[in-house]
Design a protein that fits this description.
The structure holds two protein chains of two kinds. By secondary structure, chain A is α/β, with parallel strands linked by helices. In chain A, strands 1, 2, 3, 4, 5, 6, 7, 8, 9, 10 and 11 form an eleven-stranded parallel sheet that branches. Chain A starts with a strand and ends with a helix. Chain B is mainly β. The N and C termini of chain B lie far apart (about 40 Å). Chain B has no helices and 15 strands. The chains are: A alpha/beta, B mainly beta. At the A-B interface, strand 1 and strand 2 of A face strand 1 and strand 2 of B.
């Protein structure tokens, strides 16, 4: 009962199906299916005809055409003889397909794929983790460098610095593990080396941002033709001119010239 | 094995056949011929001829019914059409317009 509409195994539908909710086909359908939501052709499900859906997940048999406005997924048990039109197609190992593919040609722009989204968010979230974790290690940097990949608490030399190091290592380790996929090179290096680099890096990035801001201020003071051309649309330029009671007609370059002239006069 | 469910935002125009029970919460036009129970749910609308052993009508049905076991129209059910079945139940409050043939000899 996971789906509002289910054509169960042992049921055959001949004709057209229209819906604004998810449909699961476990039985067989002959005809057209058009829906604004998700169509699932389950393993054992058979569709002969034309399919239109937002998302089509095919794990059964389809003969005809499949059109999706978002994406089509062909599962490992999919057996498809169809003309496929979709902005995005995902095909699993084992899927069998014969037919014509129109991927990303006629369809609408797809929503960003879930996989890429999670990857970028992961990398961006791990970046701060490194800079946070490494200073922790630097605080106990006087102790033995936390070079050991596995901190062995049962190690014979249980001197105080070692235990501190172990502690530090255990602190850094989960963070390092989380980073593994993103920055393998950094992780392989001893933490001691990475430590001084990290704060510098973060400082550098701050410094980089600050000049950018300063630059932006400078830009605001001395406007050049090129910047106006790049940063402003014709509409924005016209608004600017209107505010100064200047004529708003002419090409973009004329507008910019006029604006610069007014600017230099006011200064 | 799950029943076939025609959800309330689904419209089927054509023919439904098979061996599994069907529950209609949405709209079906055409013909339903099964070897199992057809249930028309409260909000279900069927404009079709039905040939099944059993029919349960809680929604609206326009069409003829041939059931070799039983037809039941509940208090919320509304039906326009002819029924041919050996056992027919029409609840108090149900609406019905049409002929009934119970094969009385």
């Amino acid at each position: 009962m996971a789906y509002p509409t289910t054509i169960a195994a042992g049921t055959h539908v001949a004709g057209s199906i229209q819906a604004s909710e998810d449909i699961a086909v476990e039985g067989s359908v002959q005809g057209t299916i058009s829906l604004s939501e998700v169509l699932i052709v389950a393993p054992g499900g058979v569709v002969h005809g034309d399919i239109q859906a937002r998302v089509a997940q095919i794990d059964g048999v389809v003969v005809g055409t499949i059109q999706a406005t978002e994406r089509i997924l062909l599962g490992p048990t999919a057996r498809v003889q169809a003309t496929i039109t979709s902005p995005l197609l995902e095909m699993n190992d084992g899927a069998q397909l014969a037919g014509e593919l129109n991927i990303g040609v006629d369809g609408e722009a797809p929503a960003p794929a879930r996989t890429t989204a999670s990857t970028t968010s992961r990398s961006s979230s791990t970046a701060p983790t490194t800079s946070r974790a490494i200073p922790t290690a630097s605080s106990s940097r006087t102790a033995t460098p936390a070079r050991t990949t596995t901190p062995a608490p049962s190690a014979p030399q249980s001197t105080t610095p070692a235990s501190v190091a172990t502690q530090a290592a255990s602190v850094t380790q989960p963070a390092a593990a989380a980073v593994t996929t993103v920055v393998e090179e950094e992780q392989e290096q001893p933490v001691e080396v990475a430590t001084p680099a990290a704060p510098e890096e973060s400082e550098a990035s701050i410094e980089k941002k600050e000049p950018e801001k300063a630059q932006a201020n400078a830009e605001a003071d001395a406007i050049t033709f090129q910047e106006l051309d790049d940063d402003y649309t014709v509409k924005e330029l016209r608004e600017e001119l209107r505010r100064r009671d200047l004529p708003v007609t002419g090409s973009k370059s004329e507008l910019i010239e006029r604006l610069l002239e007014a600017e230099s006069q006011s200064n | 094995m799950t029943d076939t469910i025609i959800g309330k935002n689904t419209v089927i125009d054509g023919e439904i056949t098979g061996s599994q029970p069907v529950i209609v919460e949405g709209t079906v036009k055409g013909r339903i011929a099964l070897e199992a129970l057809v249930t028309i749910a409260n909000d279900g609308r069927v404009e079709a001829d039905i040939e099944t052993p059993q029919v349960q009508i809680n929604g609206q049905l326009t069409g003829n019914v041939v059931a070799n076991e039983r037809v039941e129209i509940s208090a919320d059910g509304r039906m326009v059409g002819d029924i041919r079945s050996p056992r027919i139940l029409i609840a108090d409050g149900a609406g019905f317009k049409g002929h009934i043939d119970m094969d009385v000899e």
